[in-house]
Write a structure and sequence with these properties.
By secondary structure, this protein is an alpha/beta fold. Helices cover 26% and strands 25% of the residues. The protein contains ten helices and 18 strands. The strands form three sheets. Strands 1, 2, 8, 9, 10, 11, 17 and 18 form an eight-stranded mixed sheet that branches. An eight-stranded mixed sheet has the order 5-6-4-13-14-15-12-16. A two-stranded antiparallel ribbon has the order 3-7. Helix 1 crosses helix 9. It is globular, with a radius of gyration of 21 Å.
């Protein structure tokens, strides 16, 4: 897409600040709506790799205060289908060099991720996924119960448990990274390259000429743009409804919790689809636990006590030592789930509008990958090859990317 004349280089942020707090300008080459990890990464790669520095990120609240601040920071790429493996492995490759790219410590830890199998069906599906991963060049292993017990000694692998551990898939390169540091890193670098990060600026409508989107209406005035990219997670469908475009998404609360600081007891990430609980230990020492989505639609960021109770019960059964821990706090985000549990990435049915949504609970791990892919899509006005399978047209053609199995807990 052609760029507008270059704007004056921005003044550096005030002392002690990582980025500026500018007033929005009347027009930009590109507007990114949503300042979560995906929006910030998209803006960074637009500026860093495509020279589109006359861009702005619009955030209705505070920067990275939505799902980016409310996730459990897990990173992996061991998804089943070729399309999913492609974009998640692309993201993991970028994660492995992201600290050098952004020039800062992100607490990136490749401690590995285990996905437990508790039944004959689990074992068959898990081995199938390991084989599919290997065909796609993704590191994947099948571990028997003895190997699982050796890797995670605190896990109860005895036959007496309600959900006996029959084995697990293992991805050694997977792990965690600090979500706040990641967001701040992308924000600071995007700002340094000239991108405006505008907080407290809610999009209330769109500027249109027929079927072409020419900008947005906001609580801080109208802003024109050559292209608009929506990265608003669970609220993307709310925005597109302003254009009469109904997306095939449902938004649900997704809860997680942490304990107080503990001595090191777990040095990998362990997930279980059957009992819907997963756990890791943060570098500071707190246990981070999550589960599946709440069973109802909504935008509340509290969720239901029943989900927390169920995940705690499952965690204590699998890890008896956790019975001595306490819950420090719980929270919820709002996740957008498509019918096939895969994202929607690419051009919308309006010229100049691009959408990135439907990640369910898997969005964090894709952060650098989807930012890189969406920036390329916007800059060149066509889907990046890794985004092509995830276009809206798959819901009419039937070419779905069904990742419900690999994304049952969906992290």
């Amino acid at each position: 897409m052609p760029a507008l004349p270059a704007a004056e280089p921005p003044a550096p942020p005030p002392h002690g600040r990582l980025w500026r707090s500018p007033e929005p300008r009347p027009a930009y080459d590109v507007l990114v709506v949503g300042s979560g990890g995906h929006g910030l990464a998209t803006a960074y790669y637009l500026a860093a790799e495509h020279g589109l520095t006359n861009a702005a990120v619009l955030e209705r609240g505070w920067l990275a205060g939505g799902n980016m601040a409310r996730n459990t920071a897990i990173i992996r790429s061991n998804y089943l289908w070729d399309a999913s493996a492609g974009i998640y492995e692309h993201a993991l490759g970028l994660w492995e060099h992201l600290e050098d790219t952004l020039g800062r410590d992100l607490h990136f830890s490749q401690r590995g991720v285990l996905n437990l199998a508790h039944s004959t069906h689990d074992v068959r599906e898990s081995v199938r996924r390991v084989n599919a991963n290997r065909l796609n060049g993704i590191d994947a292993e099948w571990l028997g119960p003895e190997e699982v017990a050796k890797l995670v000694p605190i896990l109860d692998t005895g036959p007496h448990t309600r959900h006996p551990v029959l084995g697990a898939t293992y991805q050694p390169r997977a792990g965690i990274a600090d979500h706040d540091l990641v967001a701040w890193g992308f924000a600071a670098e995007a700002d340094r390259l000239g991108v405006d990060l505008v907080q407290g600026c809610e999009v209330t409508g769109f500027l249109r000429s027929g079927e072409k989107v020419r900008g947005v209406r906001t609580t801080r005035g109208d802003i024109a743009a050559g292209a608009v990219a929506l990265c608003a997670a669970g609220r993307t469908s709310v925005l597109t409804e302003m254009l009469g475009l109904r997306l095939p998404l449902q938004s649900h609360p997704l809860q997680a919790l942490v304990t107080p600081l503990l001595e090191p007891v777990l040095d990998t990430v362990v997930m279980s689809n059957a009992v819907h609980v997963y756990v890791s230990q943060a570098p500071k020492g707190e246990l981070v636990l999550g589960a599946g989505i709440d069973g109802y639609n909504g935008y509340g960021q509290r969720g239901s006590p029943r989900t927390v109770e169920d995940q705690i019960a499952a965690a204590v059964e699998l890890y008896p030592v956790f019975a001595h821990a306490e819950v420090l706090r719980t929270w919820a985000g709002t996740v957008d789930v498509a019918p096939d549990a895969s994202p929607v990435i690419g051009p919308a049915p309006f010229e100049g509008l691009y959408i990135n949504c439907g990640w369910g609970t898997g969005g964090y791990k894709a952060t650098p990958g989807v930012g890189h892919v969406l920036a390329d899509t916007v800059a060149n006005g066509r889907p990046h090859p890794l985004a092509e399978p995830f276009g809206l047209e798959r819901f009419t053609s039937g070419a779905l990317v069904d990742e419900h199995g690999a994304a049952a807990v969906a992290h």
